[in-house]
Design a protein that fits this description.
With 152 residues, the protein is of the alpha+beta class. The protein has one domain (32-74, 87-150): Orthogonal Bundle (Transferase(Phosphotransferase), domain 1). It is 52% helix and 14% strand. It contains 6 helices and 7 strands. Strands 3-5-6 form a 3-stranded antiparallel β-sheet. Strands 1-2 form a two-stranded antiparallel ribbon. The chain has a two-stranded antiparallel sheet with strand order 4-7. It binds adenosine-5'-diphosphate and magnesium ion. Residues 68, 72-73, 85 line the site of magnesium ion. Adenosine-5'-diphosphate binds at residues 13, 25-28, 32, 72-73, 75, 84-85, 87.
């Protein structure tokens, strides 16, 4: 999944080798988005949000879902945003799977970055919609999932 994500244009750690049950990869010496987003200046925060939107659109466009698209799994280093932790990832073009991927992202922002929830979400969606032609369908399902959760 790491190599497929890289081919899809997503910045991920370089895979150095595969062993029996482990993957050797570059260590990204940076800070997670979870630990830095709330302290970033507005300009950078907007850049990070748009980069998250781009990441999500590239993933979904290539038929991948990450499975744990939270800010703990994104690392900032040298003006680049790395996506890690594909342990729950899978290949899926299903509207439901991709909408759930976005829903987890939204919930993660709500939990850890509530102050900037609206701003970051709008910037993420702006780029997601620009890059991904299925976005309207996915977002429609996203709304359905939100309602489902709300009335449970
Ligand atoms: N390639 C990497 N470079 C730098 N830090 C990493 C890398 N992979 C994982 N980490 C760090 O380890 C933490 C846990 O790894 P992760 O792959 O997210 O596993 P999980 O969340 O399933 O425990 C990450 O949140 C990150 O802080
Ligand atoms: Mg993780």
């Amino acid at each position: 999944m790491l190599s497929r994500a890289a081919r899809a244009g997503i910045t991920v750690p370089n895979v150095l080798g595969l062993e029996k049950s482990s993957i050797r990869m570059d260590f990204i010496e940076g800070k997670t988005v979870k630990d830095s987003l709330n302290d970033l200046p507005e300009k950078e925060r907007v850049w990070v949000s748009k980069s998250i939107g781009e990441m999500a659109s590239f993933l979904h466009k290539s038929g991948m879902v990450h499975g744990d698209l939270t800010t703990s799994n994104m690392i900032l280093k040298d003006e680049k945003l790395y996506l890690i932790d594909f342990g729950l990832g899978k290949f899926s073009q299903k509207v439901e799977d991709q909408a759930v991927d976005l829903f987890l992202l939204y919930e993660a922002l709500k939990a850890a970055h509530y102050k900037y929830l609206n701003e970051t979400w709008q910037n993420i969606l702006k780029i997601y919609k620009q890059n991904y032609s299925n976005a309207p369908q996915i977002l429609k399902r996203f709304e359905k999932i939100s309602l489902r959760r709300r009335y449970k």
